[in-house]
């Protein structure tokens, strides 16, 4: 499995990572959502370079022009709710793509542990498709693994790209144990620490709350 860290290259991308982390700037929820969306757009452009292309002829008013265009559309997949702004960024670029949505939330037990409960899955057939699964945060890694297993009910994808804005080192190690070799994980940053409640340190806090407000 390959891991590509976009934050390792100096680019404007890191300005958006800095802004979603910044405790003052992140209070502006519209800017937080838009920054997530902008990074979704950059991930989309970078991932597009790895997809398959086919030569096509375009007819202009004055003649013909040949150009390599996408051979097939990926299936854009995200996890509700924090994944929505990143997903919109992907959709801005892959505007003809099919889409899949999954709900996953942490169900806490009395001893402080939690399981990921998945209640909703809306997906096209995934057999032999390329799927791009986006989520701003990969902390314990449980949401991604539970989501991947649920998606398998819809078919066996030929290639999986996972796009994460901020991942924990520990979560990436966990995910590697469950996802197949044909997976590429794209990250914006990798943080070294997780709290006892599986929050990423330094991370950014709760991405869903920052984008959409607190939930009960
Ligand atoms: O790697 P994990 O430990 O599973 O944590 C990562 C998950 O946490 C966040 O969602 P959250 O559970 O906060 O839900 P929300 O989007 O509704 O806020 C994030 O968007 C991931 O889905
Ligand atoms: O650090 C974390 C972990 C899970 N979900 C978040 O939004 N942030
Ligand atoms: Mg979630």
TrEMBL record:
One of its GO terms (molecular function) is GTP binding. InterPro entries: PRTase-like, PRTase_dom, PyrR_bifunctional. Residues 14-213 form the Phosphoribosyltransferase domain. Keywords: Allosteric enzyme, Glycosyltransferase, GTP-binding, Nucleotide-binding, Transferase. Its cofactor is Mg(2+). Its EC number is 2.4.2.9. It comes from the Bacteria. It catalyses: UMP + diphosphate = 5-phospho-alpha-D-ribose 1-diphosphate + uracil. Pathway: Pyrimidine metabolism; UMP biosynthesis via salvage pathway; UMP from uracil: step 1/1. It is an enzyme of class 2 (transferase). SUPFAM superfamilies: PRTase-like (SSF53271). Coiled coil: none annotated. PANTHER family: BIFUNCTIONAL PROTEIN PYRR. Catalyzes the conversion of uracil and 5-phospho-alpha-D-ribose 1-diphosphate (PRPP) to UMP and diphosphate. Belongs to the UPRTase family. This is Uracil phosphoribosyltransferase. It comes from Vicingus serpentipes.
